[in-house]
Amino acid sequence: MSDRMVRDAASPNAGPSGGEGHSEAGGGSGAFRGTAAQSSVAGGSATQQPSGRSSIRRRLLLLCLVALAFLSGLMLLEMRESARVGANNAYDRVLLGSALAISDRVLVVDGALEVDIPFVAFEMLTSTAEDRVFYEIYTQDGAFLTGYDDLPDPPRRLLQSLLRQDQENIFYDAVYKGEKIRVALVSRFIAAPDFSTRYFVKVSETTLAREQLIASMVQEAVLRQMTLVLVAGALFWFGIGWGLKPLSRLKEALQRRSPDDLRPIEHKVPGEVQHLVDGINDLMARLESSITAMRSFTSNAAHQLRTPLSVIRTQTELALQSSQQDTPEGRQGAGQSDLDKRLRYLVQATDQSTRLVNQLLSLATATNGRSGDLERERLDLRDLASEVTGAFVPRALERSIDLGLENCDQPCPVQVNSPLIVEALGNLLDNALNYCPAGSRVTVRLHSGENGITLEVEDNGPGLAPELRGKVFERFERTGQTDSVGCGLGLPIVQEIMSRHGGQVTLHEAPGGGCLFRLTLDRAADDAIPEETVSGGGEAGQD
């Protein structure tokens, strides 16, 4: 297989296989190979909204409903009292008419009082509630004339008012034989030539009819209040929602932004929340300044480190060569062997440091700026895949790894930043060649579909354990491997690049074992290349 070089097998039967390769986050031969689980990382995925938090809309609605319920309760209490007063006034007039009718039939006969109770006096008290009627007639000195002699007496205050003739009649509530009654008391003075006295007429009835009337009026009032509260609640709900529309539009505008879009918010909002927007804008400005300073420091530090690292490596190699040349034959002892070993370790450490610096530069380039600021060009991904794969052929031959390309027989137009895509594919190939043993097979495969362009890097290496797949895209994560040249930045760089392009990178298990990394990009439109820079992922950052 090692003499296969680059397979440009643009066969229509070459379909996508399931699973992909290695990672800088990995390490040695068994770093990134798994069996069943699949790990997927989408570039630029939307942040899920946190659940279980209080809502301004619900809080305002609850406050309004509580206030309405409290006011409705007060109104119902006032309504019940008004209904009681109204019912008593209506029934008291009838009760008083009955008492007056009886009092008019009290006569003096042969020096004594006689009562001829008219039938109409009780007829007017009949009701559908079947209330019971009681009466009593007695004189001022306590002589009982007729009726029920055990009817409750009125309160002393009312009785004194009646005796002072401040009132001609009084009404009061009492309990008689376990039932609530309403009593009308009428006082009259009768005089004859040989006899004069004051007499009292009590007429009472149970309060069943009154209570039914009051309950009916209160029930109707409760229904009206409940209807009012429900209608007001619905109006409040939609009204508050309408009032909060600017905040909803602000939220949607922020959600459309990419994570690296820290432009000030210029969305129109109500004056009550303008101070909040001003605070967010101030935070974004400070955050962007901090991120810019950090990226600038990383880039500058990486640039400054490249030169001394190159000098150290060169000087170390020269020292190693000089040590081997200056040592006479047969005199190379244990000390000299130890010195050579240390110099080789120094070369290896310098190479790893140089690789780290280069990847820090790549990461700074991949994360610098917003998706909308990314300069893109229209190209056929087949040409780029062939060029990058061909550049890795010498290294694959050196490691006895079969590197091939299964290109697509259809155009694969994409609108991308070419250096970044070259970096992403190069990192995947570098990762595969680093962690696959000699005799392995690494394949670059390209597919063109209606939903986009898919670029795959597959190998049949030892694979990645399922529990480690979720960590491969974390920065500086090497999943416990310490014996490799990786520094844990290759796959995070690929993820950042795909995120800026609005695409995604996913990790799968290859059909024959090993790993398969799949890059997905949007297909470019068939029209001409636009004059202005095309923004990836839509107008994500507009307010």
Task: Please outline what is shown here.
Helices cover 44% and strands 18% of the residues. It is α+β, with helices and mostly antiparallel strands and 543 residues long.
Give an overview in words.
By secondary structure, the chain is α+β, with helices and mostly antiparallel strands. The protein folds into three domains: 39-44 and 370-521, Heat Shock Protein 90 (2-Layer Sandwich); 71-214, Beta-Lactamase; 271-325 and 335-367, Orthogonal Bundle (Helix Hairpins). The chain is built from eleven helices and 15 strands. It has a six-stranded mixed sheet. A hairpin with a 2-residue loop joins β6 and β7. It is rod-shaped. It starts with 38 loop residues before the first strand and ends in a 22-residue tail after the last strand. 29% of the residues are buried.
Supply database-style keywords.
Helix Hairpins, Heat Shock Protein 90, five-stranded antiparallel β-sheet, disordered N terminus, 543 residues, disordered C terminus, rod-shaped, Beta-Lactamase, alpha+beta, 3 domains
Q: How many structural domains can be distinguished in the coordinates?
A: 3
**How many separate helices?**
11
Main sheet, how many strands, which sense, barrel? 6 strands, mixed
- The side-by-side strand order for the widest beta sheet comes to 1-14-15-13-12-10
Shape: rod-shaped
Mean pLDDT: 76
- Give me the CATH superfamily of the largest domain: Histidine kinase-like ATPase, C-terminal domain
